[in-house]
Structures are given as C-alpha cells and as structure tokens.
C-alpha cells in the first residue's frame, strides 16, 4: 500500500492529465468543459455509443455534424475484434476509425455480464468466453489498463463488476468491495504505465453498489480518495425504477469530488438525462437514440414517434418542426416511413442522424439553461413536452 | 393509326422535350449532354439504382458528392410501395425522396419477369401478383404511362416484355412484336397525357429481341421510326456471354437514331461499360456497385477486392490509391474489413460511397478520353489494369 501511495505522489507531481473546468452551476446542475489532447468536451455531454469502433449506421463526419464531441468504444469488444495487434499497428483507435475527437472506453465489466458466456469472477480477475467464437479469455484489472493503453482512449474506465438487478445487499456489498480492490489495481497500473501514442489518457473510477445507498456511499467515498480523473456511476439503468436510479445519483453526487466530471453510465431517455443533470451528472452514454432509431423510433420534442405507424403514411411534414438535422431538413415522415416499410438502409441512417442530433441539442440547451440559471424551469417545460402524447389526429390531414 | 400519326405531328410542333447535345465522338463512342428540367446529365452516364426511392445505403447528398447526375427508380416497385396516392400527394418522386436532379424510371417489365409471382401476359397487358403481399395487379401500356406521370420521372420507359435467356427465336420474335405494339400504345398515351408537376417528361423506347440480331434490327428500326426521346437496349445482361451482348449492342447502335441517347439497361461491370461506350452507348444503370459493395466487394482500378479476405486485416492503406472519395480519404482496408467482420452498417455505407464514386469517375474519364479522341487507347489501358489480379503479396507488409 505504501508503494501505491508513493506512486500517487508521483502522479500529483506530474500534474492532472484531464482538465475539467466548471463554468457554471445552477443548483446541483453543472456546465463544464473537459479538456483532452483530442479537443474539448462541453458538459453536460452525451456520448454516442461506438461499441465496435463505429457508431452504428452513421459516418464519422456525420457524428461531427450532429454535434458529438466525444464517442464511446468498448474495451471488451475491441479486444476481441479487431484485437489489440491491429489497433497497435493502426496507431490506436482514433487512427483506426478515423475519429480525431475524444474517445472514452468502457472497460467491459457490463458487457462481460450481459454478453459473455461462462464467466468466472475471482479476486484476481474475470474469466469469460467470447460471444463471437466461444474462446476463453481472462481479464485482470492490469490487463484492462494495458488494453486501454493500446486502444489509446482519452478516458479509460477501470474494470468493475456490474451487479445484476435485482441483487441482495450482501451480493452488492461483496461485489462493490471487489470493484474497489480492482479500481486500486487499475489505478496502480495506470500510474506505472505509459501512453502509447503521444496523447494523454485519463482514468475514471466506477461507483457500484446496486440500489443500496449505504454501499453507494462507501463506494463513492473510497473512490473519491483514490483521486481518479473522473467518476462514473455504474450499475444503473439495469431494470430498477427511475426513481430509485435518481436517488442513487443523488447519493453519489453528494459525495463525489465536486471538481471532477461525473458520468452516469448507460443512461438513458431524454427524461432520465434531464433529471440526472439536475442531480449533478455531467456525462452520459446510451444506445437508446441509435438502437431505437434503427427500430423506427424517432425522438421529438413532443415525445417519441414510431414512424411505421399508418398515421404517417401520407404525412409530408418533417419529423420534428424546427429541428435542423439533415433528416428533418430534407425528408418527410411519409418518406421515412416508406424507407422503414421497404427495409431500406437509408431509414436507419436518417433515424440515427436525427436521434443523435436530438440528444446533442438537448444537452446544448441544458447547458445554456444552466449558464442562465434557468435549468429547473427549462427542464420542467421539456418534460411536459416530452411526456405529451401526440394524438393521432394531429397527423391526420 | 391515322389518329396516332396526327398526335405525332402535334408532338413535333410542340418541340422536343428532351435535349441531347452530342459534344464529341471518337469512333462510335460519344460524349454528350442530356438536358432535363432537373438539370443536365453528361454522357456517358452511369445511373445508380434507387429502385424503391432510395439508392441503398447512401444518402441523397452523398449521391451528389460521388457525382451522380441522374438516378433510377422503378415503376413496378414504386407503384406497389409507397403507391401512386402517396407520390401524388408528395408532388412526385423528386419531392418525395428529396432529390432535385433527374430521375429515370424503368417501367417494370424486367421486374415483373424476375420478381412477381403468376404473371399472365396478353396483348392487352400483364397481370401479376405483388412480390410484397401477393395481391393481383394489371399493367397496361397506358397504365404504366399514367403511373410514370404520377411519379414524375424526367425520363419514362415504355412497358416491354423482357424475354428470358435463353429463349427460342420464335419466342423472342413474338415477344418483340408485343413489345413494339406496347411501345406504340405507350407513345400514344404519352402524347395524349400531360405532365403533373410542371416539369417536362421524356419517353424512351426499349429494343428487345434476345440475342437474335435480326429481331434486334427489326426492333431498333421500328422504334426508331416512332421518334422516342431516346432508346434503351433491354433484355441483355440476363445470362448471355459478354461477347453476345457486345454484338447485339453493335447491331442496335448501327440502326438507332444517331442524335438520341442510347441506354443499355442493367449493365454492368466496369469492363462491360467501357466496351459498350466504345459501341455507342450513352447511359447505363446497374446494381453491381451498390449490391456488390454491400457484399464487401470494392471496385478498384486494379480489379475488385473482397475486403473480408484475411490479407487485409492489418492493411492500413486505403482501398484505392488516388481515389478521392470519402471512404478512401478517411479509412483503411483494415478498418473496412473490421466493419464487415463486425457486421457494422457503416461498412455498407462506405462501400457504397466508394463503388459509386468509382463508377462515376470511370464515366467522367471515359468522357474526357472521347473528347480528346483517345478513347480506345484509354479503354485498353483501363481493361489491362482492371483485369490484373492483385497478388496477395502486394498487400502483405
């Protein structure tokens, strides 16, 4: 433990690698800027999910166009395919996928839970079978950091165990203790390893503890002391009621260091994001806008619409009045419905563009509302709009 | 017949709706400009196929980016879905799909042959079952023109019967006589009907006759006298050897009016296009660049490559050196291979962009070679390159 402490001192001497400047706050809601060697990320930030090195059905230049300042990749997936040898030869993930803005990599804790076959968790690490070919692999906290160094993400996540929901207090407690031990080992490896491609990399800790406030408190306190570059709240949006999720976010927000970014993993609906921002969260990722888009669901300011509904078959208006995305600027609901009915790939592309643009705009507006100290009012207005179910008659001519 | 003749006179009095200016020729190869109310099309021209109102896996703005000056839609498909009522309400296909450049619509003769269940051909027309829901429909030559008026394509095609390959001389002869009678009825309906959306529409005849030069001659002569705005050579690329196709193109080219565009339907490979241009063809359409792209095949100046081959797994070069498309400008073969291995939709998008760009560049270069009277030499050089199989060693580092 002493050796570890001295490493932290070295670290604090070499300075903080990730800068997070808080520029405004409104209640607990915060607007900030994360600075990385690949550019700035304004918070609150939504990170489109590019699990395998591609945000599904959208081009990298279109991610820039919709306003994405950072995307997410997954260590578990990228390790299995294309593999670290290819990423190494490419000069890291940014080079490999042609994306020069920041990248955050999830460690794969959640994916091992949800995707991998046979998994064997021990104090040392986790053994699992690849969901692609069934091959056997072993991740230790140290190995995860090594892989993330090879990926070259701007923000790396520690290896954690994401407890299932529901789970007992005892399970959640033991699981969290394991996650904390792994977090310390990740941190140690992080401090004793070097960047591969000349740009800085930061490391975030992950608060676990299921829906149990006491475990979450202990997790947030312990991680806070380890001085990570930022803190994620993991293990939520796994099936628990939204109110329970918000309570856990409150608990974590109170404890986590004020001057570091907070990232609520895998969340969520527009409503979830607004509620979490109000509770002090700065960063989000979720497959909802992309996955639901590919399932013909378009987010709008007046609630989501399922474009395959017959009511849209001759609706010549755009998806969302006032939306400035490519999709809304050029195509009608009738055409988008036709594309989905005819199983045209273009439907997936246009839905993805619109939904990601919608999420990015929501974050941008939220940020401006925080800066002008009107966040709560703005949020209430947005929620009222989002919850409004559009009657079919609105679309019938 | 007299009534029809007088209609043609009316037509010649109101002037030719489609302008085709030949700007250069080199042997039989021609460079020209087709002028429509939606803009010009430089020939030789390749038309990406947007059967159902979308060129698969590419956005309309990207079609412009890759240089497409005209796209193709299919009357059979568009009639079945979204249906003429929707297209009518949208103000035509251009408005519906957000494409303001020219559109040509195939009549559906080939699709009824290849897709529809039970088809019953009589002199009156063709009865068929929808490939979507099995419903029964009846197309007459007049009905096809009415539908194409509602679609609002800049260039409409007559209803034809595309004979299967192989077929007997007698079948081909009878089929062609039917196609000629239908062509006259289409022409008559064309002349007696009006445009729907304020822009001009042209009508092309279709030469049939399978692989029998005598029938092709009669078809081309008869259609030539009907003074269509352009002439398609149909019923090829259905399984016959390339040499047979080229011979038929020669036969048709000799007879078809010199001052009207000639369109070789459904063709083909880069090699096919170059050979056909040399034989006097001006326009092409084919699913090859888009469909093969979605199957991981990339066209290059050195022959096609199948990107899923293991030899590309760590190949950090672009698909085609010197190619200026978005795909080649930003992504490596290794990344493209990864996208296909991981079944990412982005792979389909990037392959489609590259392959269509490749086809458009080939047409543009061919046009310049014609203008500088070097077409034959240029063609031979291109064929030598295209036929060269790249040894695996070229890609191995």
* Cα separation of the termini of chain A: 71 Å
Strand numbers in spatial order across the main sheet of chain A: 4-14-13-12-11-10-6-5
The count of strands of chain A amounts to 16
Low-confidence stretches of chain A: 1-15, 391-397
Rg for CA atoms of chain A: 21 Å
Percent in strands of chain A? 15-25%
Oligomer: homodimer
Largest interface: A-B, 38 and 37 residues
Mean pLDDT of chain A: 93
Number of continuous helical runs of chain A: 16
Indicate the overall shape of chain A.
Answer: globular
Largest sheet of chain A: 8 strands, parallel
Share in helix of chain A: 40-55%
In short:
2 copies of one chain form a homodimer. Chain A has about 400 residues and is an alpha/beta fold.
Describe this structure in words.
The structure is a homodimer of 397-residue chains. With 397 residues, chain A is of the alpha/beta class. The first copy, chain A, contains 16 helices and 16 strands. In chain A, the strands form 4 sheets. Chain A has an 8-stranded parallel β-sheet. Chain A has a 3-stranded antiparallel β-sheet with strand order 1-2-3. A 3-stranded antiparallel β-sheet of chain A has the order 7-8-9. The longest helix of chain A is centred in the C-terminal third of the chain and has 27 residues, at 345-371. Chain A is globular and about 60 Å long. The A-B interface holds A 52-54, 56-61, 81-82, 85-86, 89-90, 96-98, 313-314, 316, 326, 330-332, 334-335, 338-339, 341-342, 344-350 and B 52-54, 56-61, 81-82, 85-86, 89-90, 96-98, 313-314, 316, 326, 330-332, 334-335, 338-339, 341-342, 344-346, 348-350.
